[in-house]
Every structure is written in structure tokens, then in C-alpha cells.
Amino acid sequence: MQESGMSEIYHHVPHPHIERRRATGPSKTIDQIPLDHPNPVVRLNSRLGLGITTAVGTMWCAYIFTVITLVSAPSAFSSANALIIIAWIAQTFLQLVLLPVIIVGQNIQAKAADKRAADTYNDADAVLHEALAIQKHLEAQDTVISELLSRVEALSASK
Predict the structure, then answer these.
(1) What is the DSSP-derived secondary structure letter of residue 92?
(2) 0.90 exceeded by the pTM?
(3) DSSP letter at 32?
(4) Which of 64, 67, 34, 66 is CA-nearest to residue 49?
(5) CB of 62 closer than 8 Å to CB of 96
(6) Which of 45, 53, 87, 93 is the most buried (most CB within 10 A)?
(7) What are the CB-based long-range contacts (under 8 Å, 24+) for 133-140?
(8) Residue 76: closest CA among 94, 59, 64
(9) Cα–Cα distance list, 78 to 69, 89, 90, 93, 96 (Å)
(10) How far apart are CA 89 and CA 72, in angstroms?
(11) How many angstroms separate the CA atoms of 63 and 73, rounded?
């Protein structure tokens, strides 16, 4: 009787995405900015936008904007005109002060999203390694089962 091997039953072929992901790693916020774009205008706008956002997105900028807005506060309040006071609060104070504070919050959220992406990537990588270990375990079992099957077939043939 022909010797049958379990390795002939199944051959593991890793998905090509595994190597691509291993090479690229997890996506991060900074990776989404086209700093290596072939168009120089896009690169300039990206660098300029990133630079301004980085500068404005600090609490120090929020403090500076607060001081700047407070310069015009006395004349807005001394006008005793509700419309001027509300306009100063809405158009001057809130817009200037909240802008950097919101950017600071978004930067914190982006860092948290980057950490979650890295954690998810690492979790998936760990699961992949566990699956590969299971695959090796199954291959080892296949070898033993093949040997046992060969012995059973040999015993069967000798009768």
C-alpha cells in the first residue's frame, strides 16, 4: 500500500498582507501628512499647515491669545452695549482662546489613536505568532499521525 503523509493534506501559505504589515508597521497620524509628495506646492502647504498647527496647538499659544483678547476687553465692556460685549466674547475671546485649546485636545486624541493603532497592531501580531505556533503544532501532529497511519497500513498489509 502507498505510504500516505498528512503533510500532503494541508500546506500552510501565509497571507501576503502579513509581510506588508510587518514592513510598514501600524499607521500613525504623522504618516497621513504628505511630506514626501511629488508636488512641491502640496509639500509646502503640508509643512506650513503642520508648522502653524504645531505652534498654535499649545497651551502657551492659548495663554498668549487670552492676553491679546484681554487688551480689547475694557473698551468692549465700557461700551455698556450688550451687542458689543457679546460680539467681543464670541468673536474675539472664544474664537482666539478656544482655537489652540481645541487643537491641544485634538493632538492628545491623535496620540491616543496612534497608541490604540500600535496596540491593535501588536495584538494582531501576537495573534499571528500564536496562530503560526498552532500551525507548527498541527504539522508535528500530522507527522506523528502519518507515522501511525503508515504502521497501521503496514500491519494491515502483513495480515
Answers:
(1) I
(2) no
(3) G
(4) 34
(5) no
(6) 93
(7) 135/12, 138/10, 139/7, 139/12
(8) 94
(9) 15, 14, 17, 16, 21
(10) 10
(11) 15
